Amino acid sequence: MSLVSIIIPTYNRAHLIGGTLDSIISQTYTNWECIVVDDGSDDYTTELLEFYSYKDPRIQYFQRPSHLNKGANACRNFGLEKSKGEYIMWFDSDDLMLPDKIEDQILPLKGKLFGYSVSKFDNLINGVLCNENAYKNNEFLVLNGENYSMMNVFWGTIDMLVSRHLIKDIRFNEKLKSGQEYNFFSKLTLSSKFEGIYINKILSYRRVHPDSIQTYQNNNKQDYLLNKYSLFYNTYLECNFFAPKKVKLYMLKNSQSFSFRLALSRNRIPYFLNLIQFLYKELGLFKTLLFLSSITAAYSTGKGYQLLKSSFPIKL
C-alpha cells in the first residue's frame, strides 16, 4: 500500500479539528500519515494534538517555525516538506472526510494513466447538508490545467489526491489571503501537463461557519475585490512561462475586470504599472490605452465599462 500524506494547516480550531482527525482515523485506507501544522494557535490546540498524536502515531503535529510567514499557505508548504508520502492530499482543519475518501481516490491512480484524482464535497451549514453545484462540468470535460485555470471545471482544496512527483517545486503562494487553491492547482496542472480523473462521488463535507474564509469574504466587499485581483494577477505572473496563450489572456481579463471594480470603489490597484506592462506585451498598445482610459473614467466619473470591455482580449 502506498503511503498517503494528508497535510492540514490549523489555527484556533481546537473545537473543530477533533472531528476532522476522527474522520481521518476512520478511513478504510490505512497507510497514511497526517501532518498538522499549527499557525500559532492560542486555544487548546496543542493539548488536543498531543493527545491525538499519542493516540495514533500516524498523526504528526508541528508548530510553524517562527522564521516562516504566518498563514495557512506557509503551513501547507512546511507540511509538504515534512511529508514522505507517494501521494499528497491537502485538507482543512474544519472539514470532514467520509470513510472511503482515500481508498476511492487512490485506486484509479495506480495505473499511472492519471496524475491526480478529484472527488466532491457537500457543504455542512449548521448541521444541515447543502449540495455544492460547482462540479456540474466535471462529468463531461477533461480535468486538465487549461480547463481548471479557465474555471471550466472545479475542485476545492480538499478534493484532490495527487502523485507527489507532479508537485516538484510547486508551492502555495504565501502572499495570497484567499484563492490559494486556484493559484496552486493552476500551477500544478499547467506545468505537469497530466490529466486527472473525476470521481463523481461526495467524499468530504466542508463545514461552513461564521469564522470560515468563505463567510469572511462574502461580508467584506473591498477585501474580496483586492484578493480576487491579486489572485489572478499573481497566478498569471507565476504561470507566464508555461501556460497556453488563451489561459494567460483569461487571467489578464480577470485582472482587468477586478482592477476596474477597485477603481469604481476608489481603491488603489496593486501592481498597476506591472499590469500595464503585461497588457502591452500580450494585447498591444491600442487595447492597453483603452484599458487605461477605462480606469481613468472609473476613478473620475464612476463610468468606463464600455472602454473596459473594448480593451479585453479576444473573446475566450
TrEMBL record:
Ranges for domain Glycosyltransferase 2-like: 5-110
InterPro entries referenced in this protein's UniProt entry, alphabetically: Glyco_trans_2-like, Nucleotide-diphossugar_trans
Sequence intervals crossing the membrane: none
PANTHER family the UniProt entry points to: GLYCOSYLTRANSFERASE, UDP-GLCNAC:BETAGAL BETA-1,3-N-ACETYLGLUCOSAMINYLTRANSFERASE-LIKE PROTEIN 1
Protein name: Glycosyltransferase family 2 protein
Organism: Gillisia lutea
